[in-house]
Design goal:
14 strands; elongated; Rossmann fold; 434 Repressor (Amino-terminal Domain); 3 domains; four-stranded parallel sheet; about 375 residues; alpha/beta
């Protein structure tokens, strides 16, 4: 005899059957039993087919989520299992950073005979989770996520799926499966240590709104690690509303200049740094004589500026290649390192004062 207990899940009373605690995915039969309905009704509710009331559909979806049930998209997926399909989630297609990471990954997958399907999240955890749920119904060979900051349900869902997962662009010692990226906090320290060695003492940082991109917050933490031991050296931050990177850098710089005397400004990326240079010039300031400017990523923009931008070069395409190779190994059952940290390179340009005390070309 099957014994159950009744619990409250939001607005519905749902009968929950005791099951051993396990990350094993539930079956459609389990969902039907808890929902006290037929397997056909569960299938209709999950597929969005007519014939199921909205109340019952919501109830069934909540039960399916609780039981970690992930449906196959159709009978064909059972036969083919999409063993050559890899899902890739990116925050955005804008800019060079993720495009170059993607370029490294896709070239490697193409050579190995794998296809990829790509979606963007706009840095929204709920959007990423919804995409993962849709993708799992196709039984992909593997899934790639950008960063390590996800919806709380994402880790549980992917762990129960037992599909190889790669988290890229960020670093963690506790990935869902495996990760390849850079240590953004350490990158912030690298920039700050260089600036401190040159004698800068009043730093500022132009970034995105708080919590929008945890990698930006990690770099800021690294800068504070270095300057935090100097009296009066609190790192002033500007977080203007997001437009394009150039405008964000321009507006953020004007905000910084209106609030406190600053001698060096770090930026989320090189495009924002270029906006900062233009803002300084609009105020009659000369870079680097009146203000030090430090970008991030080593983007192609740096090749066409009248002076070389001081920045940190990140191995974006190489990161994509390394991540793809490790993921292919995981797909084929090979044990790989859980976390791989890629090196960054500090590029000493002419938008900060050179360590010798001489100054390079100036803008302004």
């Amino acid at each position: 005899m099957l014994v159950y207990r009744t619990v409250k899940i939001e607005e519905f009373d749902v009968k929950v059957f005791p099951m051993p605690r396990s990350t094993k995915p539930g079956k459609i039969e389990d969902v039907a039993a808890v929902a006290e309905t037929s397997i056909m009704t569960v299938s209709r509710a999950i597929r969005g087919v007519e014939g199921v009331s909205e109340k019952k559909r919501v109830e069934i979806l909540k039960i399916a989520r609780k039981l970690n049930y992930v449906p196959n998209s159709n009978a064909r997926s059972l036969a083919v299992a999409n063993s050559n399909l890899i899902g890739i989630s990116l925050p955005t297609f804008a800019g060079e950073v993720f495009a170059e990471i993607l370029d490294g990954m896709r070239g490697t997958f193409d050579q190995a005979g794998y296809s990829s399907v790509i979606d963007t999240t706009q840095y929204n955890k709920d959007t990423e989770l919804a995409w993962i749920r849709r993708l799992l119904s196709w039984q992909p060979a593997a899934i790639i996520l950008t960063g390590i900051d996800h919806h709380p349900e994402t880790r549980t869902l992917l762990a129960s799926s037992r599909i190889p997962v790669l988290e890229i662009w960020d670093h963690t010692n506790t990935p869902i499966d495996t990760s390849v990226g850079i240590d953004h906090r350490m990158a912030g320290r690298v920039m700050a240590e260089h600036a401190k060695a040159q004698g800068y003492g009043a730093p500022a940082f132009v970034s995105t709104p708080r919590g929008y991109d945890i990698r930006a917050d990690a770099r800021l933490a690294g800068i504070r690690d270095v300057f935090g031991d100097q009296e009066g050296s609190e790192v002033l931050t500007a977080r203007p509303s997001l437009e394009n990177a150039f405008s964000t850098g321009f507006d953020g710089t004007l905000d910084i200049l209106s609030r406190r005397d600053t001698d060096i400004i770090f930026y989320l990326n090189d495009n924002m740094a270029f906006g900062g240079i233009m803002a300084c010039q609009s105020k009659g300031m000369t870079v680097p004589r009146d203000m030090g400017i430090v970008g991030f990523n080593g983007l192609d923009l740096t090749r066409v500026l009248p002076v070389q931008l001081t920045t940190v070069k990140t191995p974006r395409r190489q990161m994509g290649v390394v991540g793809a190779r490790l993921l292919l190994a995981r797909i084929n059952g090979v044990k790989v390192a859980k976390s791989t940290v890629m090196p960054v390179q500090f590029v000493e340009g002419e938008t900060t004062v050179l360590q010798s005390g001489a100054q390079g070309g100036s803008i302004g």
